[in-house]
């Protein structure tokens, strides 16, 4: 499993411990550092466990590059992702692998508990209810996938090219990858909260809305470019193309409104 890390030595230990606590599975924990200047390396060394590996790297400005370094180094059939500020619940990996082995799916996501930074306890579920499986049309309309919940077949990650590392996708680069995976086959869903997802409230402030929209739009465009390189192997249905076009149009409209500093006009349809 792959943990990208940048200066989160205070939280990294909990993430690693939650991975090592998984039972019924063989695993390696690849901590892929992104130019940390804190004590993160010492946190990893303190585990003194041969399953835990420290993979250092220069700062890239986002999690895509360290995650891809982990994918390249992974020796197993499956890669699971866990952000350095999140933790897994007991039995998470075993339950996912059991589901994946009983289906033809190449990827599986779960629900998660949303935990607000700086406060005790949970703030509820990330999703009130997840679909039975996530199709491309569903993923185009909404990013259902929580990165720290994802387990994906290693060969499939190599097949779709991993996480896009292009500039401008320092957030939502994961969305671009999930779109690629959903294009190839539906993502299996285990609708159980098996992750504690740390939600930094400051990242949800209105001041970051425009950059998030820009990155989402970039993810759509990246997906379109990637899809063109896959022809004629992969085909998008007219319905899927229509969903993507409509959603991209709404995102661009909202982004332009935010740029102008105006509130949406009543009945404009921008949401």
Low-confidence runs of at least 5 consecutive residues:
203-208, 262-271
- By DSSP, the count of extended strands is 9
Portion in helices: 25-40%
Structural class: alpha/beta
What share of residues are in beta strands?
15-25%
Q: State the major sheet.
A: 6 strands, mixed
Helix count from the secondary structure assignment:
9
Shape: globular
The CATH H-level superfamily of the largest domain is Spore Coat Polysaccharide Biosynthesis Protein SpsA, Chain A
Helix-strand pattern, N to C? EHEHEHEEHEEHEHHEHH
Oligomer: single chain
**Number of domains in the coordinates?**
2
| Proper CATH architecture of the largest domain | Alpha-Beta Complex
The CATH class assignment of the largest domain is Alpha Beta
Topology-level CATH name of the largest domain = Spore Coat Polysaccharide Biosynthesis Protein SpsA, Chain A
CA distance, first residue to last residue: 37 Å
**Overall radius of gyration:** 19 Å
């Amino acid at each position: 499993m792959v943990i990208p890390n940048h200066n989160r030595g205070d939280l990294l230990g909990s993430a690693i411990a939650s991975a090592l606590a998984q039972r019924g599975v063989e695993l390696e924990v690849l901590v892929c550092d992104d130019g940390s200047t804190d004590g993160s390396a010492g946190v990893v060394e303190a585990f003194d466990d041969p399953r835990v590996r420290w993979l250092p790297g220069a700062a890239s400005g986002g999690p895509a590059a360290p995650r891809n370094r982990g994918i390249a180094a992974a020796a197993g059939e499956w890669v699971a992702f866990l952000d350095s500020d999140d933790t897994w619940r007991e039995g998470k990996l075993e339950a996912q692998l059991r589901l994946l082995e009983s289906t033809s799916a190449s990827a599986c996501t779960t629900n998660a508990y949303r935990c607000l930074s700086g406060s005790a306890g949970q703030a509820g579920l990330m999703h009130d209810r997840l679909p039975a499986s996530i199709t491309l049309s569903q993923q185009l309309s909404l990013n259902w996938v929580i990165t720290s919940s994802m387990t994906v077949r290693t060969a499939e990650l190599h097949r779709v090219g991993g996480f896009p590392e292009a500039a401008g996708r320092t957030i939502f680069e994961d969305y671009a990858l999930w779109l690629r995976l959903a294009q190839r086959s539906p993502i299996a869903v285990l609708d159980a909260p098996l992750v504690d997802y740390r939600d930094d409230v400051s990242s949800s402030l209105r001041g970051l809305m425009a950059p998030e929209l820009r990155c989402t739009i970039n993810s759509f465009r990246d997906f379109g470019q990637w899809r063109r390189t896959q022809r004629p192997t992969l085909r998008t249905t007219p319905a899927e193309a229509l969903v993507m076009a409509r959603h991209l149009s709404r995102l661009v409209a909202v982004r332009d409104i935010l740029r102008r500093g105006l509130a949406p006009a009543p009945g404009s349809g921008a949401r």
